[in-house]
Amino acid sequence: MALTTSTYQITDLFAERARNLAPPTYGTELTKIITVSFAYGLADPILFPHADLAAASAAVLAEEAPIALNYGPPSAQLYEQIILRLQAKGIAADRDRLIIGYGSGQILGLLPDVFVEPGDVVIVEGPTFLGVVSRFVHAGARVITIPVDELGMDVDALEETLSDLKKQGIRPRFIYTIPTFHNPTGATMPLFRRQKLVALAAEYGVLVVEDDAYSDLRFQGEAVPPLATLDKEGWVLYVSTFSKIIAPGIRLGWACGDPAIIERLAMFKSEGPVGPFVSHVVARYCATGKLDYHIQELIACYKHKCNLLLEAIAHEFPSDVVALRPGGGFFVWCKLPPDISAKALLTAANEHGISFLSGTRCYANGQGDDAIRLAFSFQPTEKIVEGIAVLGAVLREWR
Ligand SMILES: Cc1ncc(COP(=O)(O)O)c(C=O)c1O
């Protein structure tokens, strides 16, 4: 049967928000063979706790299969294990204050459902984790960017913005921040800035969304209290994940905060919390007490890789490329001199099989051509050294 040409196009059916989406651009990355990619914050697969997860899975299948493999709620023990971990950080956590989801990204992506009407103001950092911020943009939020320096979000600039908005009668819906081992800069906000941020939230009546994906992976310096422990009035929603400390593929993250927010988030999470089977497996694994030892192994490995990357940068990059040293996490942020464009550098690096994240992929306001993000988490050590040597040669050739 011949296909008829219709005057209708399937794309005419798209909602405006889908029609206006620009496909992601990866420079030339997708058409070149990349031998060393520093682009994405993937976990090091060598470090996954295979044997312990296999043992926990076998035990669940032997002892709990009728409930773990059926429709039903997640394991109650998983809630308990997460609550214990939160309480160990000093965060007020209980069952009513906790929601579990398919990764923290899923829960962060639900925030606009609860908080944002088109045109509402949401405050984010610049640079930031665009994977989440793009969800706020798609929901029609008016996203305002506050600069980040080596101490995290500039809270004085935030204060000015909040005050200006108040004069216009605008109350932002929330402030999205990554205060510890920031993605992409690796910066950690010191206590005095955290105290000011929490005080501003209370003064202006704005929710702070604290994305704490990386703080367990500290390889340098003293722990700084989460914003959620400084907040006495309930203005902080704390969000975290097992992705960086167990494995991203288990897709388990959570948010802890005011029960009214948790209840609303749960209403929009219409498929229910998370898969029962994985929840039982991870709860069992956590209950063995091995996770904290595992985290120590991760820290040793990521510390080594980070040091190696920074040493290689010091040897190979022109001295006016400035790398920020993170105290933990997955990323090193490099500020480029004015004559080097991150996007153009990426195209040149791709020709030599090297990839990284251009800073332009980390801002909601179009900035970022003056910086690049290098993820050291995934590549084996010899590839880190090899990749930075090639990138250094590309940079020198540029000159
Ligand atoms: C800052 C930050 N928040 C959230 C996420 C999402 O993590 P999850 O795997 O829990 O969805 C990531 C993942 O890279 C991240 O870097």
UniProtKB/TrEMBL annotation:
UniProt keyword Nucleotide-binding present: no
For this protein, the record's SUPFAM superfamilies field holds:
PLP-dependent transferases
One matching Pfam family? Aminotran_1_2
What are the names of the required cofactors? pyridoxal 5'-phosphate
GO BP term (any one):
alpha-amino acid metabolic process
Cross-referenced InterPro entries, in alphabetical order? Aminotransferase_I/II_large, Class-I_PLP-dep_aminotransf, PyrdxlP-dep_Trfase, PyrdxlP-dep_Trfase_major, PyrdxlP-dep_Trfase_small
Q: Which domain of life is it from?
A: Bacteria
> What does the subunit comment say?
Homodimer.
The protein depicted here goes by the name PLP-dependent aminotransferase family protein
Where does this protein come from, organism-wise? Nostoc edaphicum CCNP1411
